[in-house]
């Protein structure tokens, strides 16, 4: 694809801007900013990846993964700002998920240990983990607020913090995992995944593209489960003080 052809695809940006203007949605500025940022960021990443793939050194691979985790943490922490130490909980979760998935992929020689595979897969893992974290934190903080009286009642009757927060925690974990599970139920019927479509467009054998896409789908299932569970169990203890009393949201900052 040439830059001229790519520039013609901006028609797909003008349509939502026109609709926003016509319906007074007020999203024109955000749409333009998002478009400009995506162009700059992706082009920059493209040139960086060209250098990293050419250099083929593990130091650059590690730096790229750290950059991904740092950006994901910065984005996700906003949803859990009321949870004490949420930044480091997110960092720990992202690192654990990344190490776990790469250990399985490289340990069983499912993918080769080269930048061309490690970095794109890491991007999908960390990106998916970030989205799951945002979904979890958004639901978890809402559950805490809505079930505050119920939680305090359980504590007053002698229940432990884990027992008191159990319903909110499990509900939030399930809610954050459902989109991943549901999307996989209709994969191939309602939608063709981006990676598979990209490989087919690039000329890859459709069956090979499907096999690689299945690997990613299975990988993202683990990412969804581990992210939600680990972040949940790292977060809930900080909702209580030493006297096992539930802290108000304003007290957790």
What does this structure look like?
With 253 residues, this protein is mainly alpha-helical. It folds into 2 domains: 1-55; 57-251, no CATH class. The protein contains 10 helices and no strands. Helix 6 (115-146) crosses helix 10 and helix 9 packs antiparallel against helix 10. The radius of gyration is 21 Å and the shape is globular. The mean pLDDT is 85.
Domain module tally: 2
Reported for the largest beta sheet, the result is: none
Number of strand segments? 0
Q: Return the average pLDDT rounded to an integer.
A: 85
How do the SSEs run, as a string of H and E? HHHHHHHHHH
Q: Would you identify the regions where 5 or more consecutive residues have pLDDT less than 50?
A: none
Structural class: mainly alpha
Helix content: over 70%
Percentage of β-strand residues: under 5%
Taking all Cα atoms into account, the compactness measure Rg is 21 Å
Overall form = globular
- How far apart the termini lie comes to 49 Å
How many DSSP helices?
10
Which structural traits does this protein have?
253 residues; mainly alpha; 2 domains
Give the helices and strands, then pairings.
Elements lengths: L2 H6 L2 H12 L5 H28 L2 H19 L9 H22 L7 H32 L1 H9 L4 H25 L8 H8 L4 H30 L18
Give a nutshell description of this structure.
This protein is mainly α and 253 residues long. The chain has two domains: 1-55; 57-251, no CATH class.
């Amino acid at each position: 694809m040439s830059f001229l052809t790519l520039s013609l695809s901006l028609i797909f940006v003008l349509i939502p801007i026109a609709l926003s203007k016509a319906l007074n949605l007020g999203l024109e500025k955000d749409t333009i900013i998002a478009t400009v940022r995506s162009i700059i960021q992706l082009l920059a990443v493209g040139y960086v990846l060209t250098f990293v793939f050419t250099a083929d050194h593990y130091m650059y691979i590690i730096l790229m993964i750290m950059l991904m985790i740092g950006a994901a943490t910065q984005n996700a922490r906003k949803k859990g700002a009321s949870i004490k130490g949420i930044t480091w909980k997110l960092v720990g979760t992202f690192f654990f998920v990344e190490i776990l998935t790469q250990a399985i992929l490289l340990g069983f020689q499912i993918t080769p240990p080269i930048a061309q595979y490690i970095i794109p897969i890491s991007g999908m893992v960390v990106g998916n983990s970030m989205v799951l974290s945002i979904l979890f934190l958004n639901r978890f903080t809402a559950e805490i607020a809505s079930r505050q009286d119920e939680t305090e009642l359980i504590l007053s009757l002698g229940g432990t913090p884990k027992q008191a927060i159990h319903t909110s925690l499990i509900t939030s974990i399930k809610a954050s995992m459902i989109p991943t599970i549901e999307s996989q139920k209709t994969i191939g019927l309602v939608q063709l995944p981006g990676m598979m479509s990209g490989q087919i467009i690039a000329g890859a054998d459709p069956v090979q593209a499907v096999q690689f896409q299945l690997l990613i789908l299975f990988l993202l299932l683990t990412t969804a489960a581990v992210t939600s569970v680990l972040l949940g169990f790292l977060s809930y203890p900080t909702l209580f003080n030493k006297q096992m009393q539930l802290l108000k949201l304003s007290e957790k900052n």
